[in-house]
Amino acid sequence: MKIAVLPGDGIGPEVTREAVAVLECLALPGLTLFEGDVGGAAYHRHGHPLPAETLDMARAADAVLFGAVGDPTCDTLERHLRPEQAILGLRKELGLFANLRPARVFAGLEHLSPLRADIAASLDMLIVRELTGDVYFGAKGQRVNADGEREGWDAMSYADHEVRRIAHVAFRAAAASGWKLTSVDKANVLETSQLWRDVVVEVAAEYPGVTLDHMYVDNAAMQVVSHPDRFGVVLTGNLFGDILSDLASAAVGSIGLLPSASLGERQTAHGTFGLYEPIHGSAPDIAGQGKANPMATILSAAMMLRHSFGREAEAARIEAAVSAALADGVLGGDLGGSHGTAAIGEAVRARL
Ligand code: NAD
Ligand code: IPM
Ligand code: MN
């Protein structure tokens, strides 16, 4: 069980430390951790946000535990040197096209959601976000147009095989859970989305037991907070999935609660190679103050045990410990409480 730990910037190291401590407290045999530089921290040390040795370390591991990247002092660098390129580069280089972002209100924790309790209680969805295509990875640039005006442009596209393989991931998840599948797009405006929808319909023929519907992304955003019960598995592209998952986290109660798994096709001895990270960023506004909520990263470690190491029992134990801590009022500032990062980590480990 070789894990590459990449803490990154801002609150990344603070939340990663607590997730590592949770993994270590399980005392799993054969657990080996390697730590690497990534993001702004790597840029400042090595002149590049994703140094070759970090990428090599990730490739040599069975799983990657990732904190967050993003450093305001790097925001004016050329784009290829900015911290965010590290996570984009890892996803692309490691072929991690399937991003699973579960969002759910744990039973008894409806009060953490800003939604009405009866609505919050029904929020339990899995966002399956395509992660290595879309407008994120298309050609982009700035130019001067025919009127002599500056213009920014980004090409959005999806190839058939990119939609097909992520659709299979979502259909398999729906088939295994018995949940319905909602494909979210903007096919009323975008050709990229029309192709997306056509391919999803084709793939659906292979899963007669799964109920499929389609929803435009603007409506989906509205339904996430008004009728979350309408969603089970949500299949969507890179950009829409990015936005909808932050929205879903706010509906759960805090972005500090949502984990993610980024998976590809590579298999390891006990599961699928993957990168695991909270959905939030480096939170420069609270970095260094010891008040970030580490639960999203701890829950990401649980997803790692489930998907990369076949350790369902331990994954479920971690999730139960986090849920119990929340039920006992162990809340960070993001949830209106006063527990700091270390205290939250400690509380979760105590309940393990
Ligand atoms: P952010 O997710 O870092 O923060 C948004 C808000 O949520 C902030 O107010 C922050 O304090 C709060 N927050 C986030 N995580 C929290 C936690 N664990 N506990 C308590 N509060 C938390 O988003 P942003 O401010 O838009 O971006 C900051 C930087 O992070 C940018 O450079 C951005 O590009 C980067 N980013 C990186 C990732 C990643 O590494 N995968 C993800 C998102 C954003
Ligand atoms: C996320 C982040 C990243 C994304 C950024 C930092 C590139 O917002 O993981 O959700 O947009 O995918
Ligand atoms: Mn995001």
Provide keyphrases for this structure:
352 residues; alpha/beta; Isopropylmalate Dehydrogenase; 2 domains; ten-stranded mixed beta sheet; two-stranded antiparallel ribbon; 12 helices; 12 strands; 21% strand; globular; binds nicotinamide-adenine-dinucleotide; binds 3-isopropylmalic acid; binds manganese (II) ion
Q: What do the pLDDT scores average to?
A: 98
> What share of the residues does DSSP label as strand, in percent?
15-25%
Q: Biggest sheet, in brief?
A: 10 strands, mixed
Shape: globular
Derived structural class = alpha/beta
Helix content: 40-55%
**Secondary structure tally: strands:** 12
Q: Roughly how many Å apart are the termini?
A: 20 Å
What does this protein structure show overall?
This protein is an alpha/beta fold. It has helices at residues 12-25, 40-46, 52-60, 84-93, 117-120, 160-177, 191-204, 217-226, 238-252, 295-307, 312-327, 341-351, and strands at residues 2-8, 32-35, 63-68, 98-104, 124-130, 140-144, 150-154, 181-185, 212-216, 233-236, 259-268, 271-278. The strands form 2 sheets. A 10-stranded mixed β-sheet has the order 2-1-3-12-11-4-5-10-8-9, with helices on both faces. The chain has a two-stranded antiparallel ribbon with strand order 6-7. Manganese (II) ion binds next to helix 9.
